[in-house]
Structures are given as C-alpha cells and as structure tokens.
Write the structure tokens for this entry.
Amino acid sequence: MKGHDGLALGDATSAPATESTARAIDRYFYTGMAALFIAVAMIGFVPTSLALVSAVVQGARPPPPLPLHFHAVAMTSWLVLLLVQTSLMSTGRSATHRKLGMAWCVAAPAVFISLLIMSTVPLYFISRMTDAEIVQFSIDLDDIWGFFATQLQVTVLFGLFASWGFLARRTDPASHKRLMMVATITVLSASFGRIVSNTRLLPGADLFPSHLIPDLYLLLLFVPPLIYDLTRQGSIHNTYRVALPLMLSMSLLTHYLHYADWWLAIGRDVLR
C-alpha cells in the first residue's frame, strides 16, 4: 500500500527510524571505539597483572619497579581520558571537552616518557649484567634488542600521532578526533601481544619471533573507523591514508630488524 507521495507506507515509517539510528551511530561511534580500546587493554593486561599481584602477595617475586607503575598509570589515564573526552562530545558538552583537553598536555608526555623508560631502562640493567648472569637468567640478547626495535616503533608512532592530533585540535577537528584514536591504537600492540601469546584468545602465537602478528591484529582496529567513514562520509579520511601506510611500513621495518644481522650486531655491542 502506498501513500500520497508514492512511497510504501512501510518505507515512510522506517525512514525516521533509520535516520535516528544513523544519528546515534554518529554521536556514539568514537565513544564506542574508546570503550573498545579499554576492553582490548583489559583483556591483554588484566590476567598477567592479576598473576603478578598474586606472585607478589605470596612472596614469589618482589614488587614491580616504579617505572612499571608509572607506565601503568600513564596508559590508564590516557585511555580513561579518551573515553571521557569522546563521551563529552557525544553528549554535546563541547565546552567541557575543550577545557579538559588541556589534560592532554600532561597525559600525552606521560605516556611518551613511560614508553621511553620501559624501552631503555631494561637495556641499561642488562648491559650491566655479567656474562654469568646473562646465562643464569637465560637472557637472549638478540631477542631483547629486537624487542627494543618494536618498542621504538610504538614510541615514535605514538609521539607523532599524539602531537599531530593536539596541534590539529583547533584548526581541523575532524583530523583531531581521528588522530587521538590512531595514537591510542599504536600503544595497544602490547595488549595484542599478550592476548596472542598468553591468553591464546587469538591465533598466531610463536608464528614469528617479532611483533608482526600483534601488529597485524592492531591494524584490524582500523576496520570500524574505515567502514564508518565510507558509509557516513563517502570516503576514507586523509588521516587514515597517512596513518595506515605509515604504521604498516614501520611494522614491516621492525620485523626486518628482528632478523637483520647488522642491527643485532649493534645490540650485542651495546648490551655487552
């Protein structure tokens, strides 16, 4: 049956509902992505964190060092801030969002510094170990140095995208919100590494000694934003046109370094 405008009555009644759903998606998409990031971090780190706490309580190992606490607080603060900021925008409180945005000036440097600390401090202590201690603790210098390349990748990419996103906050809001999301994606590689290797919830453990597999899972987090842009905007935003090739290139470069004799030779000289 058709109405006066020639449309089926079913179409006429479903159109407002469809548009309402689209508006809801537009409003809450970035909040949903922020919640997804927190879920990935929790799935990756909660089991190992609980095991660590249990071991400390039982006296099986000493408490974690201060840099690890700092890193955990910095990362948690970043994820929570992203969720709060996206929630403020989704509920129309843009003024509060802008005021709270200055917290990025603390959160982003804290994350960047914590990443640097977590990648360099272990190298310092290993470099001061004796050969006997290296053997005693079964430390693979090549593996340690290869992992250092992965940590450098994360640190550089986070610093790049977080800085770019902060600078674009006034002049290019569309890029700003996407860059904050991309910066967060870059630091979730460790979560995927634990999900793959520890929980085995995702396949690929031990397929490669580098972090190539977790990085590939990391790229899957771009699927929802790309689909969102294509369906709601009609094209992929330029932010992703830059971020995706750069992240993939850095991941492949890091994977190469895990096997490159010249890079591993540098590591042996530095660590010994």
User: Anything to note?
Assistant: Residues 9-57 form the longest helix (49 residues). Confidence is low (pLDDT under 50) at residues 1-13.
